[in-house]
């Protein structure tokens, strides 16, 4: 999730951050694809039965389990790419005929759960999320915590600057993302919303209206920058390419006069797109990116829309030793906000991590 940094609202920013961090530290993070509207966040329940089917594909692993009465349950777990980085493999799960699941149950009365823990017939307990705690075992545990080897970042190559693979620190609530309302929808009301935006939020139902409910559908700006997977910057000469693992997203950042249709370095109107039109410049070691003409209609997955007038300024600043990339996003949209909104997060560098193909199945 991301951290709200500058919102001039009635409640103080410090209170917002305390609430958001407390929520993120107290439970597994299930919000990435709208879990908050589908699953009961208050109760962890258990299910035991026969493993019938495994679909090991992004965006989420899906299991089918037959319970003792013969009922079939649909179980959703985390991304296979993240679980692989935690040492959890498809072969481990497939080898177990009997399986026990712990996780959040359906808010819709369906035979469905999202899993935080799995107990295999071998006795291994799989901790699927950064917030998972051992439930059945004190040893023989796999996964959990951060999937990165060095959560503080590697400082051995400061000369690379921004041009490397950057990783999210999954166990750190500050660096996870910019949207604390993904953990608690009530935090959406902390934004300085216009009357029209507030009216839409009042009528938003996260169980049915969540823009991330559809799988294998690419997200647009700025929500795509909240993805928890690795991201790589590559210098292409006239432009910079940012490759995000989720949905194999590629952002082109046009530098200087490299963009077709520019007059004196100023982009001319083009067709709006999910990622918009991004132009960049350097401010010392900081890459400053301005993006507009965004067709993606959502600012946040929990009921805040954005208009075609949205302008985003992003500042990517690597720390001096190259171990960390700080990120600052300023969103300006007079249709949605009464003043600009400023959000922050960071990534770290782990040289063992690569951006891999995002194999997604509906």
Description:
By secondary structure, this protein is mainly beta. The protein has two domains: 109 residues, Nucleic acid-binding proteins (OB fold (Dihydrolipoamide Acetyltransferase, E2P), Beta Barrel), CATH 2.40.50; 191 residues, no CATH class. 12% of the residues lie in helices and 34% in strands. It contains seven helices and 21 strands. The protein has a ten-stranded mixed sheet with strand order 1-21-20-19-16-15-12-11-10-9. A hairpin with a 5-residue loop joins strand 3 and strand 4. It is globular. The N terminus is likely disordered.
Q: Strand-residue fraction?
A: 25-35%
Q: What would you call the shape?
A: globular
Please give the number of β-strands.
21
Detail the poorly predicted runs.
1-31
Percent of residues in helices: 10-25%
Number of helices: 7
Order of helices and strands: EHHEEEHHEEEEEHHHEEEEEEEEEEEE
Q: How far is the first residue's CA from the last residue's CA? A: 24 Å
- Most strands sheet: 10 strands, mixed
Domains, number? 2
| Radius of gyration, in angstroms, nearest whole number | 21 Å
Please give the order of strands in the largest beta sheet: 1-21-20-19-16-15-12-11-10-9
Structural class: mainly beta
Q: Would you tell me the overall average pLDDT?
A: 83
């Amino acid at each position: 999730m991301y951290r709200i940094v500058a919102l001039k609202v009635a409640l103080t920013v410090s209170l917002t951050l305390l609430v958001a961090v407390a929520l993120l530290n107290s439970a597994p993070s299930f919000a990435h694809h709208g879990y908050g509207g589908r699953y009961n966040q208050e109760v962890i329940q258990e299910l035991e039965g026969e493993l019938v089917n495994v679909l090991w594909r992004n965006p989420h692993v899906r299991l089918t389990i037959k319970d003792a009465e013969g009922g079939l349950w649909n179980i959703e777990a985390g991304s296979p790419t993240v679980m692989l980085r935690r040492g959890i493999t498809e072969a481990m799960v497939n080898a177990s005929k009997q399986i026990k699941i712990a996780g959040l149950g359906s808010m819709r009365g369906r035979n469905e759960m999202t899993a935080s823990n799995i107990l295999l017939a071998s006795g291994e307990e799989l901790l699927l999320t950064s917030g998972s705690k051992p439930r059945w075992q004190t040893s023989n545990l796999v996964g959990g915590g951060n999937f990165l080897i060095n959560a503080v970042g590697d400082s051995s190559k400061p000369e690379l600057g921004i041009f490397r693979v950057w990783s999210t620190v999954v166990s750190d609530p500050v660096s996870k993302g910019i949207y604390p309302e993904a953990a608690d929808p009530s935090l959406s009301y902390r934004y300085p919303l216009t009357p029209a935006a507030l009216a839409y939020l009042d009528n938003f139902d996260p169980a049915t209206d969540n823009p991330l409910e559809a799988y294998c559908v690419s997200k647009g700006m700025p929500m795509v920058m909240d993805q928890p997977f690795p991201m790589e910057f590559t210098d292409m000469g006239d432009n910079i390419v940012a490759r995000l693992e989720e949905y194999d997203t590629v952002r082109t950042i046009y530098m200087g006069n490299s963009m077709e249709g520019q007059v004196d370095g100023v982009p001319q109107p083009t067709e709006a797109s999910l990622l918009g039109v991004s132009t960049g410049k350097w401010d010392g070691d900081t890459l400053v990116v301005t993006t507009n003409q965004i067709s993606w209609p959502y600012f946040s997955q929990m009921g805040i829309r954005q208009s075609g007038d949205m302008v985003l300024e992003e500042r990517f600043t690597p720390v001096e030793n190259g171990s960390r990339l700080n990120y600052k996003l300023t969103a300006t949209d007079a249709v949605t906000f009464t003043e600009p909104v400023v959000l922050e997060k960071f990534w770290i560098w782990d040289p063992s991590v690569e951006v891999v193909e995002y194999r997604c199945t509906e």
